[in-house]
Amino acid sequence: MPTYHKSTNTPLHLPSLSIGNFRGIENLEIPRLGRVTLIAGQNGVGKTTVLEAVRVYAARGHLRVLEELLHQREEFIDVFNEDDGPELIPDLTALFHERDPTQVLTISIGPSDDYAMLAIELLSPSTWTKEQPELFPNLNIDDGVWMLKIRFRNKELALPWVGIDQFQNAQARHRNPQRTWSRWLTEDWPEPIRCQTFGPGLSSTQDLTGLWSNVALTDDEDRTTEALRLLHNGIERVAIVAPTQRTRRNQRVLVKVVGRERPVPLKSLGDGVVRVFAVALALANSKNGFLVIDEAENGIHHSAQRNFWNMVLRTAQRNNVQVLATTHSWDCVTGFAQASSALNDVEGILVRLEDHPDGIRAVEYSEADLMVAAEQRIEVR
Prior knowledge:
CATH architecture of the largest domain: 3-Layer(aba) Sandwich
Low-confidence stretches: 1-8, 166-177
Largest sheet: 6 strands, antiparallel
Number of domains: 3
Structural class: alpha+beta
Number of strands: 17
Strand content: 25-35%
Distance between the termini: 16 Å
Number of helices: 9
CATH class of the largest domain: Alpha Beta
Radius of gyration: 23 Å
CATH topology of the largest domain: Rossmann fold
Helix content: 25-40%
């Protein structure tokens, strides 16, 4: 498949992406990512997993993000604590493609450059070396304590973890090491990269107001309002209001619309307007970082797809944001192809994930390929 390169003013955080042993992906190589990369493919092929892998990489393996991913999919272990009360703990093994407890489980995420690869390992007691128990002098590994290791560049962290079988042991429950995870960060651990996430559903008003507070009275406020006009050209201004000045409860996003005497709730203008507003805010809050969007087409009419992607591509370039998004929609792919091919200074790439007997493959489509496919209605989703 031919490739089509465009110049970029700043380097990308992930010029390529390699994922190993993460969730449903045993091994995936995406040789090239763009300023904006749209990922297509059938349901269940691993599109959302790719976005999750980027989140983990951006966080440099931070446990908060690992726990967020597990909570979102309700991947818990049901146990009883030392008081014999019910307790839920994150099931770290759910993050690994291979879960053989007799082996060292390893996740790898990062660019093709091995130096910048993030590695996450889970070691059962049977795989520990003689020296490793010394890392946790206050714990008895006979209680069934596992080790979670996180490596990035020349840094390494080792943390204790207790799994489902070990929680039947009263001593292990009493010494649950997960409660000390908040202490794991060290001053010299590499800084995470900012990463905004945007799911398939609509953002809550609370989320929108939090993002808006970071752009209010700045140039980004004007750009966000301009983005709203992609779906409703009568919008003049946006404001966040509450019933009283003394409380932030029951806040609403209101917009001033040409021809209407009073402002109207943003949500009354339809899901598409809310969706564009949220994406524009997320781009403004992702400067010098990542933005991952799951099911990017949701709520946006097919006629607005090209303008939507034009906004995303331009804003991503201006704010030095690397965007990865997923889609099931042909209209979304077509709009993306049209917008990307029209911008000579921003690189947009479509990657289709395909399930093969020997694993998932990534097929890259250049903008020239996309335009031909769009004109001839060739299936690339």
